[in-house]
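## retry 2 of 3
previous attempt timed out at serialization; input unchanged, resubmitting
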Amino acid sequence: MDLDVFVTAHRAEWDRLDRLLRRGGKLTGAEADELVALYQRTATHLSLIQSSAPDPMLTARLTQLVARARATVTGTRRSSWRDAVTFLTAGFPAAVYRSRHWWIPTAVLSLLLAAIIGWWIGTHPEVQSAIGAPAELREMTRPGGQYETYYSSNPAGSFAAQVWTNNAQAAAMCLVLGAFLGIPVIWILFFNMLNVGVAIGLMSAAGRLDIMLGLLLPHGLLELTAVFVAAGTGLKLGWTVIDPGPRTRRAALATQGRAAVGMAIGLAVVLFISGLIEGFVTPSGLPTWARITIGVTAELAFLAYVYVLGGRAARAGETGDLADADRSAELPTAA
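## retry succeeded, writing output
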């Protein structure tokens, strides 16, 4: 494509679109129809230039022009409480449901890794001695030791807030860093499973595995599920970089990235609940069976939320992405 000839042929249309946009809402019906037609043609022109003869200055001008025209044609929309309710009852659970083929295998493999690490440490004294001196290990695993007092080391409110912040940060890192081919996500998962495996292994070697599970399960079921969902979504984002499917890599990443941002918000709520359980239930004086029952109930409620509400919304076409009116237009690409 001869860029100079193309610009000469269509500059008058772009200038006309610019003049119409500058007039704001003071357009006649015919002028409004003309603005829509010019917007559609200019969007096509921009696509042709980007794919055939990219010119930075011209591309920047037309991109700005198309964005202004789209804002004028579609109008602006303010977020409302209805948007938040829709997100929590449809968008977020649908996104989690749609990504289940990623986070469920992630959860299974991660838990298997933690179990193997725990078994290896618990059955090999030489590995235990490499972790710490016998006196240090006894201090960690004895009744009233570090593992038990960890959950009551600070006031429940501040401890819950600290746990929530740390876990939400880890989940956000999994979601954001997934774009780097998922490699940082694997490292974050391994580090978390290593910590769990070490705790299980050392307490098992001390004959106190039941105590450790009684401390982990009340909050850990929901907390780890949220981490696995974040990790699975991050790995899916990383795979999109490798295989974007029929769409362009940019468009596919934009879709997955927007869903990941929404997922981060939703998981922050889930982790807030698990943080409350960890801060107020885990260190409480409730019997072990009662604390575990609370944790199992929270986990089953989340799974029902995902599979009932999320499954229904996903089958209705919900993806967890922004609404069509809120997304940037995907311009056609030239063959």
